[in-house]
Amino acid sequence: MTCHLKVITREEHLRFVAARPSVSHLQIPAWGDVKPDWQAESLGWFDEGGDLVGAGLVLLRPLPGVRRYLAYLPEGPVVDWAATDLERWLEPMLAYLKGRGAFSVRMGPPVVARRWSAEAVKAAIADPAARRLGDVEATVREPGADGVAQQLLRMGWRRTEPGSEDGFAAGQPRYVCQVPLTGRSLDQIQNGFNQQWRRNIKKADKAGVKVVRGDQEDLPAFYELYAETAERDRFAPRPLTYFQRMWTALTAEDPDRMRLYLAHHDGEVLAAATMLTVGEHVWYSYGASTARRREVQPNNALQWRMMCDAHELGAAVYDFRGITDTLDEDNHLLGLLRFKTGAGGEAVEYLGEWEYPLNRVLHRALGLYMARR
After folding, report:
1. Computed over its alpha carbons, how large is the radius of gyration of the chain?
2. CB 237 within 8 A of CB 226
3. Where does the record place the N-acetyltransferase domain (predicted)?
4. Domains of the chain, earliest start first
5. Each residue's pLDDT tens digit, 127-181
6. 59, exposed or middle or buried, with CB in 10 Å at 0-12, 13-18, 19+?
7. DSSP H or E stretch at residue 92
């Protein structure tokens, strides 16, 4: 069977997403509105009967001075990755994007390769011989992932290298932490927390921490804490306008697509976070907290409220998003790994991001430019 690819409308794309249990929030039509520096298009794959069987949000970033683009499909496209003939899905996409003026294509197949249980991660952190999570035996190796990687290599795709030594890629994270919710009661979920997490939730409740849902007007309060977090944890913060645009775009598509939660104590907001929902998948998207009054444990209370709400929504998974794969005690990101897996989350490795050069000269020039940044 051959697939025919063409540009589809936002409405067609959204209907396709709505018919599936899980699609990345980076592959919904509204995500293109969050990225104004990119041109967004919805692509659709149609079978011989004319049915829409695959979709992808592609972001096109123009090169200054020329009509050439970097094409990027974050955590997509949404096609049949279990197919033994991925060429019939990906070659029409490459042909279209080449005609569109793309010199390079980058994508992130939503394919899980390995999983490590919370217990396995804890043991790996305690093992002085273990340096990286990827070197530790996985609890589960997902069947088919190696076959997808081999097909991509045969087609000429190449896996991108991580952007830094801490395991976070320059694009979307290859390693994430996910708490499974399907078939579990709230008591069972909390029983999966480590002792520290359970203790901290009780401390927060006893101290009178109250977690409430916010609205667009509360984004400045979130941002104040976010800027403090960025300075403390040494990362470059996004501007407030980014989160305002994100709220407007996502809630216009679905009023419940994006939520904001704030943890209050004695009249002060101590922690805040955004939560995104697409189908049965819920993501903890951005978090922020102050160093003040940390003893009342607002972050644990905040996450527990968000997990409870995700459970009420019928979510299959609560996704903490990116984690480091380093197990080095001196790495400041190790504490984040401990925090997330302490909630009973499993470490999940995706296939990572892959790129295909359509114009090797421009592709190589971009690589050199990015390496010097």
Report:
1. 21
2. yes
3. 209-373
4. 4-108+353-372 (3.40.630.30), 112-142+150-350 (3.40.630.30)
5. 999 999 999 999 999 999 999 999 999 999 999 976 444 443 457 899 999 999 9
6. buried
7. helix 87-100
